[in-house]
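2 proteins. here.
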Amino acid sequence: MALRQHRGRLMTIEELLSVQRASGPVRCTHCHRDSDDHHHQLVEAALRSRVRLLEERVAKLEDWLCGLS
């Protein structure tokens, strides 16, 4: 679930989200919350944690698939 960068290295989901967060609007277009809002920070932290868990599961699956071949 990662995209290739120009240097040939795969970007992690976390890196993609960081790039998107840096280039995105300061206010959420849906809830109009500021990115400095405490609730927004808690949600982002929870999402980052979930992304890390999903990346770990993908890595384990890749290792398992490599072991099959």
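next one coming up
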Amino acid sequence: MPKEAREIIVRALKQYQQSLCSSMDAMIVHGGENIDLDPLKYEHFDTIGLIGIFNEEDAELEVRIDSDARMSFASRHNVDFPLWDGVPY
């Protein structure tokens, strides 16, 4: 996966991370003592790890998709499967 695509994913994950933090803060402010924040805390922790993976310059990340899924990708998602320069088909 090229650096540019990874950077997009990192930006999206950071936005999601901010949303998780805002949600946790809002829950605490509005009577959070009876609210289970653990699921959001785990997602926040996992998001930190994913950001690290996609920021890791020495990692080679691959997206694998079988031929049937690839053939139906455009019709299911209304966009062509991404092809990146220098990345084998």
